[in-house]
Every structure is written in structure tokens, then in C-alpha cells.
Design brief:
Na+/H+ antiporter subunit G, 4 helices, PhaG_MnhG_YufB, mainly alpha, transmembrane helix, transmembrane, elongated, membrane
């Protein structure tokens, strides 16, 4: 059974690392602010969530009990990341920040 837990922890760390890497590349490579906002809010949040899930699984298996700290970290991460992204996007729209011409929809033009 230890081998199965180790495999699941390794898989969760790898999946979390891949999501974090994709989010970081998106943050660095995407052309404007509105597109760059997707990298850290979606992919990186899933990456950190996967890594913390691996920690939850490993330490819960080692200590034979559920760890509350990791659950709280994931809860706060999944609550605060979308809220902060929404506030950043609203501030950028309010300041009429430049965007790509092929962006669909114009919610800031009323």
C-alpha cells in the first residue's frame, strides 16, 4: 500500500508542477495584461493545489489522520485567487488599459 501512496503523491506533484510551469510560461509569454491574467489565476492555482494535495496525501498517510492545515490552504487559495483576478481585471478596465485588437467583446465600452 505504501507504493500506491508514493505513486499518487508523485503523480500529484508532477501534475502540480506541470500546471505551475504552464501558468508561469503563460505569464511570461502572453501579449497583454488581460491574457496574462489567466496564467497565475487558473493554471498556477491548479499547480499549487496539486502540490498541496500531494502534501495532504503524504502527511495524512504518515500520521494516519487528516491534516487540517493543507485543507485550509487549498480553501483560501481557491477563494482568494479568483477574487484577486477579478479585482485586477476591473481595475485594468477602469484605467482603460491597452488590449489586443482581436480580443472579443468590449465590456468596458458602454
Amino acid at each position: 500500500m505504501d507504493t500506491l501512496v508514493e505513486f499518487l503523491v508523485s503523480a500529484a506533484i508532477l501534475v502540480g508542477g506541470v500546471f505551475a510551469l504552464i501558468g508561469s510560461i503563460g505569464l511570461a509569454r502572453l501579449p497583454d495584461f488581460y491574457l496574462r491574467l489567466h496564467g497565475p489565476t487558473k493554471a498556477t492555482t491548479l499547480g499549487v493545489g496539486g502540490t498541496i494535495f500531494a502534501s495532504l496525501l503524504f502527511f495524512s498517510w504518515q500520521e494516519q489522520g487528516l491534516r487540517l492545515q493543507e485543507l485550509l490552504i487549498v480553501l483560501f487559495l481557491f477563494i482568494t485567487a479568483p477574487v484577486s483576478a477579478h479585482m485586477l481585471a476591473k481595475a485594468a478596465m477602469h484605467r482603460q488599459l491597452r488590449h489586443r485588437e482581436d480580443t472579443r467583446g468590449r465590456p468596458w465600452k458602454q
